[in-house]
Each structure stands twice: as structure tokens, then as C-alpha cells.
């Protein structure tokens, strides 16, 4: 089908499509970080985990021919990274932020090293579901190509919100994240809870990475991530540690990221590079606007080294 | 819920308990037996080792040596969970509720048998039914961080009962409660011991509570058991002698005539509390030299925020504060120039760097001041050490060494250390909040003596306190704060407790 000229309508449509496409890794990484931070620990290493997940997911998908096995492999790799981070942080006097930075560099370095042979080969893509069947306009169809992982991310956000409210696991994570002493007093072992939360968070970041290499942009290269793993940390703060807000924040961020390409597609080329900075400017602006010198940060886990 | 544990009070016994922190012996061969159904009081001066003993009983600390017997059987208290399974529960001196969880969530999660998926509707129905059997109500839907101290304390006790614990340790449960609230809570607890439902071990500094509620008493001094017996057979004099090693001197406090000139004035001061929901508005308050201005009020009525405004921890949204006639921006330089000092509540959190040493914490007012009041560039280790030794000596701070972390000091000793720091040198104005919170009686009377002494030499003192007796004892003038506003003012001559109580409760 040939593209139909839909004029300026192309811009919001491209932004919507871009938001859905670009936001998926943000959803997974920020949900993972949300879980980890809710347990009172920060994992800045998720950028490394993301890149390693992208590499291992791509490699496994290529070797087995199944993108889903790739996603699974990325999740397992991410979990191992998370568990390693959690295990190191257990020791007295270890700072989670410093360990995170080390893990970030380690993850990226290891991924580049092991991923060299997979830059050329082509691995199978993850499938997408077309929600645009009702329309004849190819742009609409393209925008509404929704990847299965995006849908899974949305469901995951709901499940996680429910988990924090209504399950034992969720409450345990919140208790540990709020007060190490209170957790000990009810007989919980904060180190174990944080270890598992960091492991699970890492697994989600790994899945986010697999999306990058298996769907969009859809190939493995060393420049695959543009800092999604780090931006997710800011997203979690902006989302006030609420999984559902994480989902919306990721979508907003993805939409802002699609602004540049969308404007370019309708011929606006001036200040093109400036629009690529839109998501970062947006995050910064929103963080400033939603903070207050008088009120305590709502929803921040109190045991977090950020808020301590 | 409570069904799995057998009901009824239990006997708990600690035998030859010793606890060492490094070379420091906090607990030295202490044996104590708390009989089923008794209300046992544990007395001792600050740092005597009371909290350490009960934490060993609860498995929060691992005693260096010693044994525990529960109902006559050997019990291994490896961790708090083991103690909980035996029906032992504790309300700690520092709150252990989870701040961002609601009351209901706190109760449910503390249970050993929380289901994997919590059906909140059913859970709430059961909680409501349980609360019907409680003598006081607590807001179950509010996050704990929004609750007042009294509400938290009640929730802590309710939590232990909800867990079905039959041996309760209360570590200074009433230090944050008004006298009426304290009587209500303790009265109920005692009724439960009388009915044989629970056994209670309560740490307290208040003899009134011992004589009014306890059956038996044990006294610790410097980590050793130094006496005890049945309440009624042992007099208050005997108890205080055992605690202190000597009978306390009753000091005569004389109020000298002082010159009263305005020092600190607040006009139309407005601020928002940390939840952003409540506002503080203070129309006009003037503090004079040579007077103690008491601010009474039940906790959570804006006193904490007032203190934070005055220490510069909370931003003003309106109004003006003047110090000696000049606008006061709550900076360190201004406070130093006007010789204004502070003793905030919870000094470990608000006035200390917990991980720094006692000596360093004591140096916060002088470390950057060189000879002649000029600002110093190099740190003078020797001056810091000298300052620390002098203050530790003068204020009888019990610490293993000046180099120990201040967080390792007992609650009362942190209080003394900070007060010592704030009262050193010349002080023209002093703002204190609950200065005797958690102190033993000799420390209380020493601190009150110092406050009166400072007043007599012309210091202006703003005393924010939840302890009405303290306000009545020290103040020249009393203000009552209720819901963020000053609702009542009276000179001490015409003050009466009933009237103040009514204004505190908001029925003026
Ligand atoms: N974790 C610790 N490390 C080192 N020393 C400690 C520790 N905990 C307590 N101590 C010391 O043990 C002594 C007893 O402390 P404890 O807290 O038991 O006193 P307390 O009787 O409860 O006093 P207070 O009435 O002030 O609460 C104190 O001198 C304190 O400095
Ligand atoms: Mg204590």
C-alpha cells in the first residue's frame, strides 16, 4: 500500500507509534528499577544489564531461531547481573550506587566482548500485533503495530501495582524498603529481600534489552542503547515509585523521543537535533515542576540511599 | 489470627545475661524473672542497660553469655522471629512501624501467617472486629508517617496484642504520651495482666507509673542487677538510691527577678507541614529575655513544625521572624551572632551526625571558630578533644570513649550530649523541644536546673514540650498550640491544668 498524504495528522500519529515503540524498554527497565528501589536499594547498573540483555537475547534468538527463547535468555542474564549486584551490596560498607556504576561498565564491556560475532548475523524478530486493521491508511497501521512485549509491560505494571498493595511479597518489599529496622523487628531478612528484588529487577531490565535487539531497532550493535537504563532511574523518581505511573512516564518519554523523527517526516528539519533532546528536557522539567521544597517526597522508600 | 497460639500469660526468665559491645560491658550477669500475669517494671538511669537487656531477651541482640527460660523451658532466642513464635513481643523505644504503610497494612504484615494474596475486604472486616475489643481506636487507613506520636504508640501496642503475644515488653511506652493517654494505655494493659491474659515488662523512668501500675520492680545500674521486689514493699527512696547509688538531691530552684526585653518575635508566621495537608499559622508570639515561654500541646499539633521553622528546617510561606529587632533568616551565622541555640526533639536525628564520633558531634558549635571568633580553616583536633572531655564530664555523658559513634549512645545520653553542646559558652536565646524526653529523673532535674539557671542569667528560653508537668514547672508564661495555631495564652500565676488540658484538646 502506498503512503497516503495525511498532512499534519502524521505528526501525532508518528508520535503515538513512536511512543509505543520507544517506550517498551523504558517500561521494563523502570518497572525493574521500581521494584528494586521499593526494596530500598538502587541499581544504577541496569544500563549494563540492558545492553547485556540485548546481546544475549539476540545471540540466543539467533542460535535457537526463536525470539522468545532470546527474551528468556536475556531475562536470565539480567537476573544473574541483578543477583550479583545484590550479593555484593550485602556486605558491610558497600555502597549500592558505586557498585551499580561498576556493574554498568562491566555489563557493557562484557556484552561488547561476547557480542562481536553477532553483529553481522540476522536473528528473528519478536512478533507484533496489528491493531490498525480497521484503517486503510498505512500510517495508521504502522503506528498501531504493537509489540507483544509492550502489552506484556502494561499488564506487568498493573500486576506490580496490585502486588505492592495486596500480596505478601509486595508488602514485604515495601517494609524492607521503608525501614530496615522495622523489617528486622518483624523477622524479615532485608538482605535476602533486597537480593531477590534486585535479581527480579535485573531480569526485567534484561527483557527491556532483548526488545531493543529483537524488535526496535532490531539488531545487535554496540550503540544499541542510548542511555535507557540510566533514564529509567529518573523515570522511577518522576513516577514516584508507582508502577502504573512508571508505565505512563515511559510512554510520555517515548512520545517525546519520537517527536524529532515525527517532525522530520513532515519536513521540519530545522533544529532537528534539538528535538532529540526533548525527552531529557522533558524529564528534567517535570522533575523540577513536581518537586517541592516544603513537602517530603511522596512515596519515596525511606531506606533508599537517595532519600536517606 | 490470634488463634494458633495458646492463650494466657507466660513466665519469662533471663539467667546470667551478659552482653559486651567490644570491651564495654553493657550488661553484667543479670538474672531476672517475670512471673506469668505480672506487670513488671524495669528501672535504671540512662545507659544502665535496660534496652540492652530487653533486646537480648527478644533475640535482637545475641547475648555474650546467659540463657533464657520461657515457661521454665530453655529457649534459644536466635532472632526476633524465634521470640515471636514463643509469644514474646516488644514495643521498642524507637518506633518500628513502617512509615509509609497504613495502620492496617502494618498490622497485617507483622503477622507470621500473612497469606500470599491478601483479601483486603475480609482482612478489614476482621481488623474492625478486633479493634472493637480494644479500648482505644487507631486510624487504620492512614499511613503511619501521618500519625501523631501518641497514635503510633497505641498502634504499636495494638499490634502486639493483635499478634496474640502473651509477653509484652514496653520500652518507655509513655514518653510520647500525655499523662491522660498514658494512664489510659497503662490502665488497660494492667487490666489485661490482672485477667491473666498477658505478662508485661515495662521500662520506665517515671516512679508514678511504677507505683500506680506495676506489681514488681527490678533495678539495673551500670549493667548490673542492684535490687528489686514487690511494689509497695520497696519505697521510692530505696528505688532511687538503688538506681543512682545515692539518694537524689532535691534542688531548690529559685526564680530570680529578670529584666524582660523582647528577643524573638514571630509575626503572622505561616508554613505547610511535610504532608502538605496542614498549615501552621502563628499570629504573634514574643519571647523575652529572662523568661521561659512554655508551648504546650498534644503531639502533632504543629509544635514540631514550629521547631523546624525556627531551626531553618522548614520554609516560611509567610510572615516574619525577628531576632533582637533584626529580621532573622535562621542561618547559622545569624544564630551565632545572636547567640541563639537549639535543642530539637529526637536530637540523634535532628541535631547530630549519627555516624560521627561523640567528640565530633560535640564540636559542631566550635570546630570552625578559631581564636578570637574568626573562622578557622584548619581543624584543631586538640581543641575538639578538650571540648569533648569537658562537656562529657560536665554533663555526665556515658560513653565508651569520646571517639565512639554518637549513635551507639543510649537515648538519654545523646540528649545530654546535645544539651551540653548547646549550652556551652554564652547563650542569649535557647529554643528547646521536649528536652527531658526519655531521661532518668536525675538527668531531668539536672536539665531543668540548668534551664532555670540560664533563665535567671537572662537567657530567653522557648520551651516546646508535650509534658504538661514540665511546662507548669518551668514556664513564666504558657501558650497552648492546637491544630497549628496558638489557641491560648496565660501567665503561670493564673495557669491551671484543667483549663490548659481543655485548650490542648481543642475545646477552648
Ligand atoms: N550497639 C551498641 N554498640 C555499642 N554500645 C552500645 C550499643 N548499644 C548500647 N550500647 C551502650 O550500652 C549501654 C547501655 O545502653 P542501653 O541502651 O541499654 O541503655 P538504657 O538503659 O536503655 O538507657 P536509656 O534510659 O537512656 O534508654 C550504653 O552505655 C550504650 O552506650
Ligand atoms: Mg533505652
Question: Can you walk me through this structure?
Answer:
Chain B: It holds the Pfam family ABC_tran. The complex is a heterodimer of chains A (308) and B (508). Chain A has one domain (7-126, 137-299): Orthogonal Bundle (ABC transporter involved in vitamin B12 uptake, BtuC), CATH 1.10.3470. Chain A is 68% helix and 2% strand. Chain A contains 13 helices and two strands. In chain A, strands 1-2 form a two-stranded antiparallel sheet. Chain A starts with 9 loop residues before the first helix and ends in an 18-residue tail after the last helix. Chain B has 508 residues and is α/β, with parallel strands linked by helices. Chain B folds into three domains: 12-95 and 165-243, Rossmann fold (3-Layer(aba) Sandwich); 260-339 and 427-508, P-loop containing nucleotide triphosphate hydrolases (Rossmann fold); 356-425, no CATH class. Chain B has helices at residues 50-57, 80-85, 103-110, 120-132, 149-162, 179-194, 207-213, 236-244, 303-310, 332-337, 347-350, 358-362, 381-394, 411-423, 441-456, 468-474, 497-504, and strands at 12-21, 24-34, 39-43, 65-70, 73-75, 88-91, 167-171, 199-203, 216-221, 224-230, 262-272, 279-288, 292-296, 318-323, 326-327, 340-343, 429-433, 460-464, 477-482, 485-491. In chain B, the strands form four sheets. A six-stranded mixed β-sheet of chain B has the order 6-7-8-3-9-10, with helices on both faces. Chain B has a six-stranded mixed β-sheet with strand order 16-17-18-13-19-20, with helices on both faces. In chain B, strands 2-1-4-5 form a four-stranded antiparallel β-sheet, with helices on one face. In chain B, a hairpin with a 2-residue loop joins strand 9 (216-221) and strand 10 (224-230). The radius of gyration of chain B is 24 Å and the shape is globular. Chain B starts with 11 loop residues before the first strand and ends with a helix. The chains are: A mainly alpha (308), B alpha/beta (508). The interface between A and B is medium-sized, with 26 and 34 residues. The structure holds adenosine-5'-triphosphate (ATP) and magnesium ion (MG). The site of adenosine-5'-triphosphate (ATP) has 18 residues of chain B, from strand 2, helix 1 and helix 14.
